[in-house]
Amino acid sequence: MGRFSRYFGNSVPFHSDYAKKHGIDNTTTNPNTLANIYYTGTKVVDPIYRFFKTKDKRYSVIVMSWYRSKAVNKGVKGDSRSGHLSGKCVDLAVYFEGVLVPPGQWWAMLEANMATQKKIDRLPFDIAIVETGKKVASWNNIVHLGISRKNYPDFKREVAFW
Ligand SMILES: [Zn+2]
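Above are the sequence and the zinc ion SMILES. Below is the predicted complex in structure-token form.
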């Protein structure tokens, strides 16, 4: 397999501060998981990166969490059925000149853009959880995005605001 993403290096999906801190291996050789990471990268991560960089070069898109091994997922208190375990989910943060853009704000920008495009060109995803700080006050940094290859081309596009 080549690159998981056009804009992010192949170590990015496996990066985890928690894993690093605790000396845990956060890589995988599972072909299905690797295929999921590639799918998430090319279908979700790359288009979002392109969208913001095209809009204004001062935007940065940061991968906060992508693949998680069982140990890492447990350590960061992820859901036991989390899509991060199989590389289907990715958490993204967007910054403008180093300042965090509230997830609800950048998600609205994406939604507005998607609304003007043909269905086929829209961002494909099955679930987007936009952290707004409504449910958990400290959760307001990222949008969690999940995509399943099996749903192609009828992605669910469910959006939840947490
Ligand atoms: Zn997530």
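The chain has a mean pLDDT of 93.
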